[in-house]
Amino acid sequence: MQSVIVEIRAAEGGDDAKLLVEDQLRIYNKFCSLNGYWLKILSIRQGYVSTKITGENIVEVFKNEAGGHRWQRIPPNEKRGRIQTSTITVAVLEEISNVKTTIPENDIIITISRGSGNGGQHRNVTDSAVQIKHLPTGIIVRIESERSQYQNKQLALEILQQKINHLYNSNINNELNNKRKNQLGSGMRGDKIRTIRVKDDVVINHINGKRISFKKYSQGLINLF
Predict the structure, then answer these.
(1) pLDDT tens-digit readout, 73-128
(2) Which of 47, 63, 110, 132 is the 20 to 30 Å CA partner of 7?
(3) Residue 127 and residue 121: Cα distance in Å, rounded?
(4) In this predicted model, which residue has the larger pLDDT, 1 or 49?
(5) Which residues partner with 106 through β-bridges?
(6) Who's near 20: CB < 8 A, 6+ residues apart?
(7) How far is CA 80 from CA 12, 17, 75, 76, 83, in A?
(8) What is the tens place of the pLDDT at every residue in 173-222?
């Protein structure tokens, strides 16, 4: 089994871009449910979500998802029916296990807080969310998906280890954010790997020129293309 970390961020488009992060998450969740993959939300806040997706050949499945996704639609709060162009960005980090680094305790700062997203009364009134900062690289991992502080801490350490592995296995000397930046591009409307035109019922992949209907795309009834 393989795992990838998939992060979705709002780029251009203001409030609608933040809503599109949630829409893209729902599409990935439906796709995973239909195809036997397991999607776990690690951290979520307005305009951002981090997930871990596990399954057979998942690296190959998600390899072309990284980059800018341009949406053209009428926002839910648009009263005049005007189409808006907004963008979200997706980063995909695959699990690397051939080299593992050790993380000295002095190299990390652990912060405990309450969960910030949806998830019921328990999550928002207990100090269970865990954020870990790796001082040498500046990498920050926040996990709030579990009810237990211990479970969130263990998962955060696991994800941090995975990100550090990416850093060193890829021979990158700067922060992991440089790798993310290369994947995501500028986040501007013209810098995209995919265009989703809702009104025209079409989704265009700019990597290979393929097109599918938005209806199928939104229901997860397709292989990622």
Answers:
(1) 999 988 888 999 999 999 998 765 555 557 888 999 999 987 665 544 444 456 78
(2) 110
(3) 12
(4) 49
(5) none
(6) 10, 13, 69, 71, 86, 88
(7) 20, 18, 10, 11, 9
(8) 444 555 555 555 544 545 689 999 999 999 999 988 899 999 999 999 87
pTM of the model: 0.72
CB 2 within 8 A of CB 55: yes
Q: What is the pLDDT of residues 161-170, one digit of tens each?
A: 888 877 776 6
- DSSP secondary structure string, 3-64? EEEEEEEE-SSTHHHHHHHHHHHHHHHHHHHHHT-EEEEEEEETTEEEEEEEETTHHHHHTT
Q: Give the Cα separation of 55 and 3 in Å (integer).
A: 7
> Which domains, ranges and CATH numbers included, belong to the chain?
2-97+175-218 (3.30.70.1660), 105-165 (3.30.160.20)
Give the integer Cα–Cα distance in Å for 86 and 206. Answer: 16
Distance CA 39, CA 52 (A): 6
Give the integer Cα–Cα distance in Å for 101 and 166. Answer: 10
pLDDT value of residue 119: 47
Single out the residue of 97, 99, 66 nearest to residue 179, CA to CA. 66
Phi then psi for residue 71, to 5 deg, are -110, 135
